[in-house]
Amino acid sequence: MQSYNLAKLACRLFETNSRRYLVALFCLFCVVSNASAAISKENKLKAAYLLNFTKFIKWPTEGEKESLSSIRICAEESAEFIAFLSEMADNPIFKNREYEVKSLMWGTPSGCDLMYVTSMKNIDAVDLQNIVIVVNSRETYFPGTAIVFYEDNKKLRFEIDLQCINSLEVNFSSELLKLAKIRK
Amino acid sequence: MLKYTSLFIGVSCIAVFCSKCLAQSTPSEFAEMNFQELFEQSIYEVDTERTQISPWLFVYQLKSVKFEGYLDGDKSLSYDDVLWSGPGKEDRTTKNFPVVPTTIYQQAHIISLGYKFNSSWKGQISIPYLKQKTDHISIVSNYDFFVIETEGMGDIGVSTSYKWSNPSTGIWRFSFGVSLPTGSIDEVGDTPRAPGDQELPYTMQLGSGTYDFPIELSYKNIGLHDFNVSFSANIRTGHNSRNYRLGNNFSLNGRYQIELSPTLRTYAELGLVYSNDIHGQDDSLLVSAPIPYPASITNPKLFGGKKIDAGLGLSWKFAEDSQLNIEIGKPIYQNLNGPQPKEQWRNSISISKVF
Q1: Does B31 contact A88 at a Cβ distance shorter than 8 Å?
Q2: Which residue in chain B is spatially nearest to A2 when comparing CA positions?
Q3: Same domain, residue pair B1 and B61
Q4: For A41, which of B3, B43, B317 is closest by C-beta distance?
Q5: Of the candidates B176, B85, B56, B179, which has an alpha carbon nearest to the alpha carbon of residue B128?
Q6: B279 inside 8 A of chain A by CB
Q7: Domain residue limits at A9
Q8: Tell me: the pLDDT tens digits for A19-35?
Q9: 0.90 surpassed by pTM
Q10: Residues B252, B295 within the same domain
């Protein structure tokens, strides 16, 4: 039905005198209307992994009672990804903690507990103390990266840099380490 | 022809942009998965087994450029300076002409399809559809003011690029390709040269008529400040069937990007451009006179020169696999082999999508 309506709209556009300009607008319409449906399964899985990581990591700022803690996740990703991650974090399954999901702004990375990075940066890591940095693939370089996603036989896996997490004042649970490929 | 091109663009849009609407899963479904369940999930959509980081990239780009006014070197000329008044009123020289193009407007719809072979190698094919319109004034009776238009497919480009990077040196990319002579160089129209249709000047043709080789080397900084520098050239070879080849182009560009948000970037760029004049000559454009060029755009020596272009752009990644780019540019300095029409502005809008 959706395709039929789009085709009908396309035909109407071609009949007008200014069809070439309308075609460009139509393309824009198609693209924008499709944007909300455009989160790949791989990225949905990555979002799910990010939230699952937080269950097995303890930050120094957290109190004894986990219900009082709030985890700030900063993601260098699209608005759709942020919205998807936020909606996941609102699920009752993560009710033990409060989550704040926001777009990563390079000017203020120090306000994050977990940072999800998708592009190569060679910035000074001094300001990133105790931020658990997760990068989207092995092709993405970022100083101080703790967790790297990689693909193995069409499945998503992750590796943990042991040296890096030892330098953080963050406690990774042994259960999480067992699931990861360890980079020493 | 335009109708079919429009139809092709429209159908491509529907096929490419609206094909993924069906595959969707909810945030709560993913939230409820534990590590074991996540480990078992394929990164591909179950129904299609299609890779989500697809190697295919579709780009539609609309580019426009307008030329108006004249320059000889960097000196502005009026239309009166360039228009020859006629026998007995003014001496005819190599700098004045009985026919003067006043405004040239060119538009290109470009559809490109790219394929990423691996993390280093990419290939691309680009198909342009061009539309050009030139307003003229002349001293020829019945041609005081006239307009010539051409449109059709331009030269198809095929290129490949290789990328290499490391944290200390940044990202380097080298691309090279070939531009095939698929655009027409036999466009005709009604000019004051003779009754009926005649061969049109170089600026109104749709292709170069030669095999051309575009190359580019670019460097992108990896750091808190995003900038990149590129050198590009378009090297033309041989002569076409009308006994000329267009001039080679060389440009050096610098771009500085500011990240407004993870999905929105703005950039400013500066480019130095050098173009050669035309090599050879299309004799069908000449008239029988001591100075055989009826208009500046029929003289192959009055092409090329140096320019400094400034541009501003906005790049919006409105979905993880789709991007919109808008760019406006204007030369801030031009030194042309003139008299030659002066570029006023150029702009482009493009939409790209991985599918």
Answers
A1: yes
A2: B18
A3: no
A4: B43
A5: B179
A6: no
A7: 2-37
A8: 555 455 454 544 444 44
A9: no
A10: yes
